[in-house]
Protein 1
Amino acid sequence: MDAPTGVREHCPVAATLDLVGSRSSLLLMREAALGTRRFADFAVRTGLSEPMTARRLAELVDAGLLARADYREPGQRVRQEYRLTSSGVDFLPVITALRQWGDAHADVPGGRPLRVDHAGCGAEVVAEVRCTAGHAVPPAEAVVTRLR
Amino acid sequence: MDAPTGVREHCPVAATLDLVGSRSSLLLMREAALGTRRFADFAVRTGLSEPMTARRLAELVDAGLLARADYREPGQRVRQEYRLTSSGVDFLPVITALRQWGDAHADVPGGRPLRVDHAGCGAEVVAEVRCTAGHAVPPAEAVVTRLR
DNA sequence: CGGTATCCTATAAGATACTG
DNA sequence: CAGTATCTTATAGGATACCG
């Protein structure tokens, strides 16, 4: 995760994977996307060990996707929390797309454990490939240019 | 990638990561998304070693994202190719979302090496979080339900 | 509660050499 | 061209114990 081992890949996908590409990081980002904020909840809900949870959360903070802060519920003592930064919010399409593919194509024992719906509207939330002009872009209409 | 090591995670995100969650698999899916079809091109363009390229391509075929076939260019001998299946095409939002986050937030030495544009329209291709009713869904409007 | 320290195993991934 | 075989190293990640 820190430095790529092989040939240096000058690609935004590879760069993203170098920062947040491990299973543990992505599971933690999933949890953050679902609203989890506290250390113990991250560990239990991802099934990660505490040392791994601590290490990856620290990396995600370093990488700017999460921010750590103190907070105090009324009448309680001070606790820690991890919240999505704006960069972390920008990561939600990745998590949404992974969830969507899993729902459609992976065999999740016991059926679908998660739903994400649009507030008010009630329709399911998905990741769509579009152009910035707003058109849906099917694969055949995507033109790839390799620069350099 | 084969069997999850820790607590069994009943989640579509985790299930997806168990099938295609390694850096090498995701780089190969990136290449497939960019139109790469031949073994040697996959290896060179991802920077992966040949043994790793062979192993992961075989896994992606097993997982149903790629299909292997013979093909023959006019006047050439028979060659192999790997093509996206419909399940593989459904994976494109993941790759698009990873690329998009990298373009916005990762430091790719030498600038942006890749563009994906909408044919004809010319506008850039991105992954958007929407509901199936067609509304854009900002994070604040996503309602998460954990079932079971 | 929110971690850290230490040690261990499994796997990801590369290097090199070789084959049909 | 499209791989396979073998070996090695680096990293992911868990288990257990402990700390402020």
Protein 2
Amino acid sequence: MTDDQHPKSDDFAARSGKNRPKYVQVSDLLIREIKAGHWREGERLPVEAELAVELKVAVGTLRKALTLLESEGLLERRQGSGTYVKKPPKEAAYQLFRLELLQGGGTPHAKTLAVRKEKNSEVARVFGVSSSTLFWRIERKRFLNETPIAAEEMWIRGSHAKQLTAEELDESLYRHYREHFGFWISHVEDRIRLDFCTPWSADILNKESGAPLGWIERISWSSQDSVEEYSRTWFDPDVCHYVSRMA
Amino acid sequence: MTDDQHPKSDDFAARSGKNRPKYVQVSDLLIREIKAGHWREGERLPVEAELAVELKVAVGTLRKALTLLESEGLLERRQGSGTYVKKPPKEAAYQLFRLELLQGGGTPHAKTLAVRKEKNSEVARVFGVSSSTLFWRIERKRFLNETPIAAEEMWIRGSHAKQLTAEELDESLYRHYREHFGFWISHVEDRIRLDFCTPWSADILNKESGAPLGWIERISWSSQDSVEEYSRTWFDPDVCHYVSRMA
DNA sequence: AGGAATTTGTGCGTATGTATC
DNA sequence: AGATACATACGCACAAATTCC
């Protein structure tokens, strides 16, 4: 870290074309260190006093950077204990799942029905790649408290795995992505429409063909803002509904 | 503000049974001042140095309190200018509206059909009040780009107005609440289900009775976490869909 | 247009409280 | 109980943005 109190031409500022405050530069530096694997998930960082000396900044400045990173979810700070690299949320497996039983709640659960590699020009358009690109297509049946509630098909980039079978896929695909493919979903966009039972969904949901269904089309992005998943979920409106909270 | 650096028995701590940090006490104090109308919306607060002296805290401590209040959306701080009491967002009229045309987008627009005062025990339960409480019930027709897309009925507390007619209600009820009733909606929860055209909704949406419809049940809270609105929206799935983004 | 005054933002350093180990 | 580590609090100097003349 450069020691000019109000930097005007250090490395980062020069590259980014901006005059970023020193505490932001420090936080950027720490982000790079963490992503480069300098500290592992869950590992404790050096204590503030040490790190401040090492980076040649005042403790207060370092603290501001650490606080910023904590607010962004990359670090966890515990008084009396230390500052830790935060693990991607383990319990967040179903954090982005928005279906609930009509009476409220329910524990999500999924069963993989089929996995195959294929091309799909419509899906390729969503991902913004060439229509000859191969995707993994995964079909699943979803439950809340053992009640079948939805049929689902999803696509991810074929490049993530050479082989992929139903057996090796986790309950939570999001966790599988993180632990086996090295990325994780940070935000999604859902469109909820109305559709009708096809023979496929009727079979899975045990409904008569042609009955009305809720239909969720989801695009999922990684924290780098790249599209990493596209999915379609047909849910049975007799047993569940979609819940959305916003501020 | 008490001047013990690490307060152990000031007014607030005594009342709350906790030892709150001084900067939190300061922010609590400022919240009370603002709510009491000591400073109006948009008005500038005294400069940091003055306010710090007045409250008998260090400037840094005051700054931490002000930063906290800014993060909570009560204040706005502008370098070189001052610290201002934030006005509730004007442009947020349709911020919480989540229906879009199937092809995407569309400008929201609403027409009030009927307004009347009535009791409704089901609605009273949502508000958490006695079932004999009177509510205003407002029926509206919603459009996107002049296309009729939804029929809506909503309830608000009867106590907000003695009289209320369709003519005096704004396009945006949320704005009307803010400007005439003195509260505003800060967060909502939607449940999206499937329903079918009733004679009423069929008439408004120009559909045949019994056709499937999307159904949104919404509970809206003010920033004080009190339920202030309950609404039901039936939307035509042939022309629009519900969109939800989350991180 | 431009410079001075004002006001918040950044940065430094230190002392002490409080939670954890 | 003692050592360690983060949290709070104080105060000062200067930068940057805004305002005003």
Protein 3
Amino acid sequence: MLSLKKYLTEGLLQFTILLSLIGVRVDVDTYLTSQLPPLREIILGPSSAYTQTQFHNLRNTLDGYGIHPKSIDLDNYFTARRLLSQVRALDRLQVPTTEVSAWLVHRDPEGSVSGSQPSSGLALESSSGLQDVTGPDTGVRESETEQGFSEDLEDLGAVAPPVSGDLTKEDIDLIDILWRQDIDLGAGREIFDYSHRQKEQDVDKELQDGVEQEDTWPGEGEEVLAPNLLVDGETGESFPAQVPGGENQTALSLELCLRLPEATCPFGENAEFPADISSLTEAVPSESEPPGLQNNLLSPLLTGTESPFDLEQQWQDLMSIMEMQAMEVNTSTNEILYNNPPGDPLSTNYSLAPNTPINQNVSLHQASLGGCSQDFSLFSPEVESLPVASSSTLLPLVPSNSTSLNSTFGSTNLTGLFFPPQLNGTANDTAGPELPDPLGGLLDEAMLDEISLMDLAIEEGFNSVQASQLKEEFDSDSGLSLDSSHSPSSLSSSEGSSSSSSSSSSSASSSASSSFSEEGAVGYSSDSETLDLEEVEGAVGYQPEYSKFCRMSYQDPSQLSCLPYLEHVGHNHTYNMAPSALDSDKQMSRDEHRARAMKIPFTNDKIINLPVEEFNELLSKYQLSEAQLSLIRDIRRRGKNKMAAQNCRKRKLDTILNLKRDVEDLQRDKARLLREKVEFLRSLRQMKQKVQSLYQEVFGRLRDENGRPYSPSQYALQYAGDGSVLLIPRTLADQQARRQERKPKDRRK
DNA sequence: CTAACTTGTCATGTC
DNA sequence: CTGACATGACAAGTT
């Protein structure tokens, strides 16, 4: 038994450690300006539930009393397991689950999207992240959604270990590792499943349509169906025509400000980023993609080669660069991200392709990465207000077919930055497909694509559905006071002071004592009828009433705080119940029967609740036999222990409820952090696109001494630390890129 | 009737 | 050492 206890305690300790680990992980908050009170509470342990209750007391289930005490040898273990499973589930984004469920809902032939529908309810329930889903097909669906969920998360890089039994050190380590993967959302994936993505898109769309009240994306149908136009649009044929003559620099400090027609903005003011992938995918309904551009566009998304760590590091590099490079960019583009109709930027862009948009007021500074620093305050709490210059040309992702995606963003090398030869029209005629993608290493398209998918899921799916679900849970939970401030001591408040009944001392303490025993009640039955009715009630009243209130306190802990008063009231009520002495008899506890049998001259209530001094004083007032004194002591002991047991059980319940609430808080925080991360990545992607387009713009306008455009295969733009952009031979750029690539790795070592 | 749940009680340990 | 308290375990009662 001792070993088992130890084992269970260790398990719970591990659980605590796990929570702490999660807390550490989500310390992303420290620079996301977010707060995680629950985590801190868990880690620092201010919760009275934790301080009052030892973890090895955790028994039964989150639902309350779940396991029979006789199985106590296992229930601790299973409780820990259950909690661990929930915590582990935190590591898995649950949005996809919701999406899947929602998808099923909308397949309902009735077409009604009612939250009361079982499937919908299931979806909501699943979205909550809690696994206590009930209802028909729950098991199957749960497994299905779970599976799909894991799948999704694997795609997202946030892979949680399968919920298994024991929590081992390896488990914790694995969770930690997986969390890192999660952080590096989507990184390191070499394969991206089109069909899967398509499914997600469908789900997203369903969520969009259904959950958000048929808020369809206007034009997504027609506009997206113009993939062929995209090619033209992407080529930016208009660029060369607008190119202002040829600058003759080979190592050119591009201080010039490219002023391009505003009308050429690819996405327009109302383009919404999140929809782009969706539309893109819709345009590619299956793996049998339409030939041409879309394939090309998507291809770079499938070539993520960066390891999560690289990505993370590069992201940090990006951030530092962005902070260093102050650039002025029109901040009015918030609309692009937020005020846009659900129009699909990419699709819109495709449809508008013939009029390939070009930035207006875009200086070459803006072409540099640093230029985005001011625009994209990624760590702003309001990421969504991310200012993407309305004039900025958010060109759709173009395939660079780059094999060297390892250039860090920190690299000043813009060589081959998103240079899409096929798409860049005349300016890119010479662009080779082998051009490296400086940004690719930082945030490869595959990852961004995944992020977008996840973003969609979270934005449309989770935010509206799961968040509401969480809210519901919380609200419903609010009905249950988890306030651990309810001091158990309130139960043991001195009741004796209020006891109005100083029970008449039925001085007949004669024969009873002789027959006293633990079963003394046997001899009582005959005597009881002679007892003063008031005495009987007085002696009997307390316990039943008290028990009632204690029971109430279990159901609603908030009532516990007023127990001291209720206790008295209830006690007095017993006197009003006088008419039925038999009832009182029935409600009498064994000790009360014994007390009556022994003709104890005061109530059990006093015996139990009087302070020691008063209690001894009371005893001294009476001439009590040894048997009576023993019984009184036993009554006091048992009475106190009873209250202690009630308090103990209440604490257990409170602890469980607190843990449940904390788990919910953690889930909520995790969802929020993931949402924020997705938003960051999305803005990063937009930035990348912007840089890409600007690169194309700049490079396409460069002319050599002979007025001919530079070949992208031979030259590349390099971003210098001082903000200038240089045109350098590609070989040199590649060397520098490689050098930059090694640095972070060395640093990591 | 059984199983699950509730409650009281005891033993034991801690403070 | 004693009293109060906490809690695991068990048993009896209740649902």
Protein 4
Amino acid sequence: MTDSVRKLVQQRLRDGDYTCRKEFTLAMFNGKWKVNIIYHLGHEGSYYFHELQALLPHASHKELAKKLKELQEDSLIDREIEDNGPRVKVAYSLTPLGRSLLPIIDAMYDWGDQRLRELNVHDVQFGLGQVKQ
Amino acid sequence: MTDSVRKLVQQRLRDGDYTCRKEFTLAMFNGKWKVNIIYHLGHEGSYYFHELQALLPHASHKELAKKLKELQEDSLIDREIEDNGPRVKVAYSLTPLGRSLLPIIDAMYDWGDQRLRELNVHDVQFGLGQVKQ
DNA sequence: CCGTATCCACACCGATACTG
DNA sequence: CAGTATCGGTGTGGATACGG
């Protein structure tokens, strides 16, 4: 997903248009990997950058760094630099604001879990029905 | 917003990978206008296509039709053709499954509402902080 | 009234490489 | 170890037009 929702919402807020509450929230975790980052940091505590890389092996180095930066800009995560040694490590953790998103993320997890179970049970080709042409 | 999350999730499910519950849910309402469509249909009942157009004046004719088709494919909305007269009208409404998403959408509304109030009160340039370069 | 096709601009994201 | 720049493929969404 794209980040266009996020940029559009930012523009609307700059224009004084606050009639985008749902989109504003969506923009917080819209974008590839963001939901997973928030979920991991929320349920398992803080992680170093390279640990997040290991948790999300399909995420490219560049995109992971970019998404973390955006989450930090949105005040959802904290970034702490540990400069003790030859190598610098950076630890990420959820802010209280980021933690306040967890009920929504968890609700999304539960909804998806239940829906996937239903589809599996009824064997409807996993429910990804195509409209008849 | 894009639909890449939706397509990616569909592919993962086809591959037998069900470890994407949160992304699966996100894919339901990710994509421009979808959250608003669900919200309107959920809180105000069914609408004709042209009524939705009026409710979402910035959505192009093409994209609105496309998103409605996707929502229908995902079994979130029903589509009913009323062919009484020279002009055909099409009514859209939420399915029970679509209605089951409302608690999440409403939670997103509430989160965004509260967050925007906080930012307004504290006047932090509406919180869209930029990371120092 | 509603759906879809075409064309086009642009944003995203991956691969790669360079920096500190 | 972590962040950023560049290049390129691809998907998304707007304008427009045509078909049912």
